[in-house]
Write a structure and sequence with these properties.
- The structure is a single chain.
- By secondary structure, the chain is of the alpha/beta class.
- It is built from 17 helices and eight strands.
- Strands 1, 2, 3, 4, 5 and 6 form a six-stranded mixed beta sheet that branches. The chain has a two-stranded antiparallel sheet with strand order 7-8.
- Helix 2 links the parallel strand 4 and strand 5.
- The longest helix is centred in the middle third of the chain and has 29 residues.
- This is DUF2851 family protein.
- Pfam families: DUF2851 (PF11013).
């Protein structure tokens, strides 16, 4: 038995409600269980309870055992003097406030069915515990919960972006610049890309965005990829360019051992991603407002359509030739940059500046874009979840990582429906 489960039972009134009485035989009627409190203090605020016909408004504390009131020292903590009812499963004794006044104690019980379903959900080894049961939940209920998850996802990203904004002393351009760099790591190399951005002041970067050769030299050099001898004339030239720029601005490169190549497809090697990023910075001339302020999604996608310089058409790694092919930024990569970087930034910017037009654009673009394709989204599709757009896929990815894989079924509306309240009598 966990207190998390007990809180769930109390919140949704899933306990046996016939003839409720306290351990002192006072009649109990629960008008409202109250609002869950995740911080310090009583478990539920603003509860409304009728005790012997008198309506009380206050807080409720929930414990597995009555003696936990004393074990947790609530009897000497004035923060718990506002408790009007102590809800427990078992135990004997008394519950008192700091002044010695008695607090009514209610023992609750529930059907074995709800406990068995809870156990079957939380003890499954598959991260999708409700696998095979989603067909019984209405499309409306699933849709509403996915909207909630999407908002939680964007709110979470907004907090992360605001934290980065503090690091850049409230410089939105600098913040977007770092986020854009991070997006080119596509998860595996995101941290090194962010370090790369931090190693180059934005004011320095902007001096070279009108010259593809120089911006490529600056990025590759700062990434630590030009710290060796080369026989290739192109690389020797890039190296010389970088040495001049780094000495002029007193730059220190990132350690190149941070970059990951293992088990990556060559098209996702950090060297290729850096070359693509250089091409993008050259194309937009470092004017990040061209991406942030553009209202037309198709134009943004077009701006992200870049190809590397000719050298990379025959190389994935420096000084190692490969078969010739285009190294343009692919459609899925462009979509991921928009979904995971540009849209969260728009939402965060709109939220902080209270310009709701940016928040609305974030939702509009998510609804227009195709859903992401990965193992998580495919798993949901296989289990009767309709995934129409990128907003849906973002919601389900967030739900999977923050609820399903952490066994937070009791905090999930879908998990709540799977437990089927109608079966509890």
């Amino acid at each position: 038995m966990t207190e998390e489960f007990l809180h769930y039972i109390w919140k949704h009134k899933l306990y046996n409600q016939k003839n409720l009485t306290t351990i002192c035989n006072q009649s109990i009627e629960v008008i409202s269980p109250g609002e869950s409190n995740a911080d310090a203090g009583p478990d539920f605020f603003n509860s409304k309870i009728k005790i012997n016909g008198t309506l009380w408004a206050g807080n409720v504390e929930v414990h597995t055992d009555l003696m936990d009131w004393h074990v947790h020292k609530h009897d000497v903590d004035k923060a718990y003097d506002s408790v009007i009812l102590h809800v427990v499963v078992n135990g004997t004794g008394e519950t008192k406030r700091t002044n010695g006044e008695h607090i009514p104690v209610l023992k609750i019980s529930w059907s074995d069915t709800i406990w068995q379903k809870y156990v079957s959900l939380t003890q499954k080894t598959d991260w999708l515990a409700c696998c095979g049961k989603l067909a019984g939940i209405s499309l409306f209920e699933k849709s509403m919960w996915m909207q909630r998850m999407l908002i939680e996802r964007l709110e979470q990203r907004a907090l992360q972006i605001q934290a980065m904004l503090k690091q850049t002393t409230s410089n939105w351009d600098e913040t977007f610049y770092r986020l854009l760099f991070r997006s080119f790591g596509f998860g595996v190399n995101s941290d090194p890309f962010e370090l790369l951005a931090s190693s180059i002041p934005l004011t320095v970067l902007l001096k070279y965005t009108d010259d593809l050769n120089k911006i490529e030299a600056l990025l590759l050099g700062q990434a630590g990829f030009l710290n060796q001898e080369f026989s290739d004339d192109v690389l020797v030239h890039l190296q010389n360019e970088y040495h001049f720029i780094s000495r002029k601005h007193c730059l220190k490169s990132v350690d190149n051992h941070l970059w990951r190549f293992l088990r990556l497809r060559p098209s996702n090697f950090p060297t290729i991603r850096i070359a693509q990023l250089a091409a993008l910075l050259f194309k937009i001339k470092g004017l990040f407002g061209e991406l942030i302020n553009e209202k037309d999604l198709n134009i943004v996608i077009h701006k992200l359509s870049v190809e590397t310089s000719p050298y990379w058409e025959t190389h994935y790694l420096l000084d190692k030739k490969s078969e010739k092919s285009s190294r343009k930024l692919g459609e899925s990569s462009k979509n991921l940059i928009i979904i995971n970087t540009l849209i969260p930034f728009l939402f965060a910017y709109g939220k902080v500046t209270q310009n709701h037009e940016f928040e609305e654009r974030a939702f509009e673009w998510l609804n227009r874009m195709k859903p992401e394709r990965n193992a998580i989204v495919d798993k949901w599709k296989d289990n009767e979840m309709l995934v129409k757009n990128a907003g849906d896929s973002q919601a389900l990815i967030y739900l999977s990582k923050n609820y399903c894989k952490k066994n937070k079924c009791l905090l999930c509306n879908i998990g709540h429906k799977v437990l089927s309240i109608k079966d509890i009598e």
